[in-house]
Please model this.
Amino acid sequence: MSQEVVPGGASSPVVQSASREVPYDDGTHWRALLGFIIISMDLVMEENIYRLSPEGVGPSVTRLNSPNDCNVATLAAQIDGMAEAASILQPQARPAVICYACTSGSIVIGEDEVRAEIQRGAPWAKPSTLVTGVINALHRLDAQRIVVATPYLDEINTMEAAFLRERGFDVLNIQGLNVEDCEAMGRITPSFIRDFALSIDHEDADAIFVSCGGIRTLDVLQEIEDAAGKPVVCSNQAMMWDCLRRANINDTIEGYGRLFHMDWGESE
Model:
């Protein structure tokens, strides 16, 4: 076998691989590939996406460079990196759907603005936002009167209440925890989230909405729904339900509320 000299003076035999016929299939995303744009400090979203991805659905994730502070100004600034983030989400495989995975950012920036930037970066994909999924989920559950629990500052809660009312919902109560630290949001205990959501419920509410993709609501969503006796929507559940339905994936997923037992219906 011939020898070649490698840096440092050592020698190594030249490798010559045998010719082989290599088979290929459609990979992990033989049913659908979905793309998600996540803020950089989020601890929860990525795990939730993979948890709610049925077999054959391949999630592709990228992150926006964002500060740890969660306020109106920092959320508004996230639009600047949106198109570039969308452009690097598996451009050769081309996800069927690309979603900006931030509830409050979707509201502060605006759904149309986010979708336009995603489309600019990835014109082959259906663009969406997390809050679009929430709106579609609430409509699909026929929830008109809602209560809303969030970890946000009240400046964000004020915008969220106005947004939901503009979209036709009767917000009976909205309460936030005034947490500004994005990383800390991911460490709020699920049992506290459960108790917080139930504490703001109203007998006239059709559904409870727990807002924010960065908190661990998914861990206790079924508990909240069982205790309240009404539908519960949380950000990551609604986003995944909506993105899957956009990609024509209608699987029922047990343990995450009645929403995952419903098809897409006439959503946006």
